[in-house]
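Researcher: Batch entry, complex prediction.
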Amino acid sequence: MATPKRPNSWLKSVDSFGKRAFDLIVSGIALAVLSPLLLAIGLMVRLIDGAPILFFQKRPGKHGKIFRIVKFRTMKEASSSAIKSDEFRLTRLGKFLRATSLDELPELWNVFVGDMSFVGPRPLIVEYLPRYNSNQSRRHNIRPGITGLAQIHGRNQQSWEKRFEDDVWYVDHRNFALDLKILFITLYQVVRKEGISAQGFATMPEFFPSTNDVAEPANIEMSSAEINENDVAAVVKVVRSGRLALGPSVAEFEKNMAKYIGVKHAVAVSSGTAALHLIVKSLGIGPGDEVLVPSFTFAASVSAILYVGATPVFVDICTDTYNLDPADLERRRTSKTKAIMVVDVFGHSADWDSILSFAKKHQLLVIDDCCEALGAEYRGQKVGSFGNAGAFAFYPNKQITTGEGGMIVTNDDELARLCRSYRNQGRDEMGQWLDHARLGYNYRMDEMSGALGVSQLSRIESILLKRANVADMYNKRLANIPGVQLPVIKENMRMSWFVYVITLKEGLSASKLIRELDHRGIPSRAYFSPIHRQTYMAEHLTVTPILPVTDRLRDRTLALPFHNHMTREQVNSVARAIEEILSNKETTNTPVEMAY
Ligand SMILES: Cc1ncc(COP(=O)(O)O)c(C=O)c1O
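Model: Structure tokens for the complex:
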């Protein structure tokens, strides 16, 4: 969620007074002007569907105080329980009234007497009141509205979490101009019949845990970016400005990233892979040089070394964090070793003290592939700020996203200058557009991505917190499942959860578990699949390296569905499926024991 701008209390009370005055005057006038229409609709309901004309229901108002919302009756029988889908009980006239939102007209009375406002979070049913978390319950800090931010964002297409996010955002940002905008958009959508009105509460259980905690597995996504209205507005603003490349948004994103990581320079590029490539190239690594790198990583850590004609030399990993094992560095070092490509795997920082002292002793360059670890810390210092330079990535499964995108971070002035030149076709900063000082690339980030990055980065802490909460739910739920090892987080580290990866005990097969989960509609991935065993590496490796820890993990690690807005219900579903599959209850046919 965006950091809310909270007006001071004096301004706030003037604002609230103005809002109430507007509601009172406009609803009074509207009731008077529309009274013939109200009477006509009332008469039609009475004649076609019989009594009663109006439908009353208890709803929570400001600070949870209960009031009775009033609408025209649209269903065959007025029932106080709206939990079940009411679609099938709608009368023909009711369908028309709902489609045109005319059934909501009597709510003008609720606005007039002060139960509601024209604009605010939509009042839901009383039964759900105790189930909001503390942030969500802030939607009750103000009067509920006939319409609101969630309504104009197509409430019926939004998840409940997104609707509540909109509601809370509105509570923090409301002002008169915003209310007018929401009202006009509502009227426009009503005229265009864009489905502003509620369709009962049939989908509510998606958001709230049901009693037996079973989710529809089909709803569980492997990853999902958190995009809010601020993000959308930021991108739209750039598109409207007409300045789509080489503009102020990328520069602002770079400035904010450098500040966040605590380094002098940040250079935005088109992907994490591009960031790694330019770092390796700008450090002068090339043919004849060896670079120490873990095999238990994403392909790009190794590709960047191969792009410049250098040789990757694989290093084994620690048995707990799966990060590069500093004790193995010495064994792999030769006279040709020029650099170490460190990877902060899954968002867990590497063991920087040991790595840096080894690098210093042997005068090696250090590159940090921190693409998975934005915000992770080692002894209170952000990853990316260790070594000569760090590379971040912003693909949509990352902690923050720019669509595609990456960032080089460094304290080295010369390295930053070279990276800026290489990303921009080899141009020097002061040179002419068609002067190319060196062979470069087009690895520039565009302005829409830059603006999205600024907006996303502004709420990085809240994003990291949400991810930590989901990881915590998984930790608790999976803790006692036999055969499953949980992720390990070492002391003095701040984990920035990128993926949630479990390890199966020796003898169990991750690929079979992945298949079984897939049969149940639950996505998961083999993560990582070591690079020295990938097909394309065959042409680069003369001998297969011996990496006992990496090889022992083969087909035993898998990433589970993981993103900011995963619910407890979804986590429970995944855990229950794993539990059942591993205990061989209800598996389709293949036992999960390894075939070899
Ligand atoms: C460790 C690591 N390095 C590099 C990258 C490459 O980033 P991109 O996909 O933006 O090129 C990734 C992406 O997932 C990664 O996980």
